[in-house]
């Protein structure tokens, strides 16, 4: 069987759900896995992260330039963490045969601080399972980079048993800085994983990456195994990524070695403005047990004390697609929704997914300085949203409990002038 067939079989064996945005050279893999087409790559990754929160392994199959569209949730997931493995299968096109660029996506793997594996003909099935186990061990997305040379070539590897691991969301007691520190503690362990990986084969010069020629094979290309630094010639497709990176140190000595900072250690946490008109909405969600996925912006404060109802947050416009595959409730602001959440909502409505999208509409980006936001009315009439003023508490409560899914509730209010997010001393909890 060729690489397309083998990789499709490996993905189906190792995952529970598969998404794709077709494009050269991965279109055939998406078709052979029966992958669900999505409106764009960002939405696809967010769906996969939602599956992860629900304990389902998921894969997203996209081409190289498609990775650009999902960089925000990709990077956010490294700090936020995940539960079940998420595999990002990326088809690079080094010769720009069917692409407008020859982008080498291993560089984005480095940016996101995620494990990157490049399989060859004799380890395709093992590479897919290893990538998902690495995703679970290090609580972040794992990337599998493939090229036309691998996909069109013969694969001799055979299926392997699926062994599900379990990742973890970042500890809720950590500050944002603490979350980053915790993610880098795990990143340091990724180097040990790469060094010890049985996917790599060590022999004489030259070394080859993926389907590259050579008696030595480097498969865990990021972080590259330390032993690769001893080879003078490394054959690879695209940029000399492994050749350059195997001699690098990726973290300063003080990064990823200290204990993550907690809210208690810092001594305070942030919450909504003292006179925020939307606080009663969050309080009611807390009262009736609604656990939303939170977006970026003010609504992310619903993850902090005293409410702590938010399950996770994966960046701007992410809550809708993530919640559609997990909690069923997305909490977002008008700015984040218009930024990129609206794309996901279109996909959710087209597929009839059971999602309730709650938009707190204050007509601005309050988290970053109250810059004006575009008016929702002009863009989402097709969704037949329920518009309700923030002071209509009984109507809001009724809608939260009874609104159809998919459905949208737009709660409108005005931010208090001259106020900022309240800082509360941890000892006052």
Write a concise keyword list for the protein shown above.
single chain, 429 residues, alpha/beta, Rossmann fold, 2 domains, five-stranded parallel sheet, 19 strands, globular
Q: What is the CATH class name of the largest domain?
A: Alpha Beta
Helix content: 25-40%
Stretches where pLDDT is under 50 for at least 5 consecutive residues are none
CATH topology of the largest domain: Rossmann fold
Overall mean confidence score, pLDDT: 95
Strand portion: 15-25%
In terms of structural class, how would the helical and strand content be classed?
A: alpha/beta
Tell me about this structure:
The protein is of the alpha/beta class. The chain has two domains: 3-245, Rossmann fold; 267-425, Rossmann fold (3-Layer(aba) Sandwich), CATH 3.40.50. The chain has 14 helices and 19 strands. The strands form five sheets. The chain has a seven-stranded mixed beta sheet with strand order 2-1-3-4-6-5-9, with helices on both faces. A five-stranded parallel beta sheet has the order 12-13-14-18-17, sandwiched between helices. The protein has a three-stranded parallel beta sheet with strand order 8-7-10, with no helix packed on it. Helix 14 (393-402) links the parallel strand 17 and strand 18 (407-412). Helix 1 packs across helix 2, helix 1 runs parallel beside helix 6 (124-138) and helix 11 (279-288) crosses helix 14.
């Amino acid at each position: 069987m060729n690489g397309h067939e083998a990789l499709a079989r490996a993905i189906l064996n190792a995952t529970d759900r598969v998404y794709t945005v077709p494009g050269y050279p991965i279109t055939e893999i998406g078709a052979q896995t029966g992958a669900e087409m999505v409106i764009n790559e960002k939405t696809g990754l967010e769906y996969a992260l939602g599956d992860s929160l629900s304990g389902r392994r998921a894969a997203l199959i996209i081409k190289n330039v498609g990775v650009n569209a999902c960089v925000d949730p990709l990077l956010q997931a490294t700090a936020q963490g995940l539960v079940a493995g998420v595999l990002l299968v990326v088809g690079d096109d080094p010769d720009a045969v069917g692409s407008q660029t020859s982008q080498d996506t291993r560089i984005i793997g480095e940016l996101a601080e995620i494990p990157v594996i490049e399989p060859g003909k004799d380890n395709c099935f093992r590479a897919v399972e290893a990538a998902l186990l690495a995703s679970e061990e290090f609580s972040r997305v794992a990337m599998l980079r493939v090229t036309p040379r691998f996909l069109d070539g013969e694969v001799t590897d055979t299926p392997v048993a699926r062994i599900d691991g379990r990742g973890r969301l970042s500890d809720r007691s950590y500050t944002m800085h603490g979350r980053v520190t915790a993610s880098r503690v795990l990143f340091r362990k990724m180097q040990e994983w790469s060094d010890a990986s049985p996917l790599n084969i060590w022999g004489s010069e030259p070394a080859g990456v993926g389907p590259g020629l050579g008696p030595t094979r480097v498969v865990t290309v990021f972080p590259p195994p330390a032993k690769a630094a001893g080879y003078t010639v490394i054959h690879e497709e695209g940029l000399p990524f492994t050749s350059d990176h195997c001699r690098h140190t990726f973290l300063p000595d003080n990064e990823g070695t200290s204990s993550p900072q907690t809210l208690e250690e810092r001594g305070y946490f942030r919450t909504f403005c003292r006179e925020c008109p939307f606080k009663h909405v969050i309080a009611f969600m807390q009262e009736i047990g609604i656990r939303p996925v939170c977006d970026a912006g003010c609504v992310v404060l619903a993850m902090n004390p005293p409410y702590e109802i938010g399950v996770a947050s994966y960046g701007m416009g992410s809550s809708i697609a993530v919640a559609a595959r997990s909690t069923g409730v997305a909490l977002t602001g008008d700015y984040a929704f218009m930024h990129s959440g609206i794309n996901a909502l279109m996909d959710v409505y087209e597929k009839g997914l059971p999602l309730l999208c709650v938009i707190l509409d204050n007509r601005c980006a309050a988290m970053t300085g109250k810059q004006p936001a575009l008016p929702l009315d002009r863009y989402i009439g097709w969704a037949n949203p329920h518009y309700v003023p923030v002071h209509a508490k009984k109507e809001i409560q009724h809608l939260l409990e009874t609104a159809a899914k998919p459905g949208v509730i737009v709660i409108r209010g005005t931010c208090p002038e001259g106020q900022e997010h309240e800082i509360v001393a941890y000892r006052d909890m």
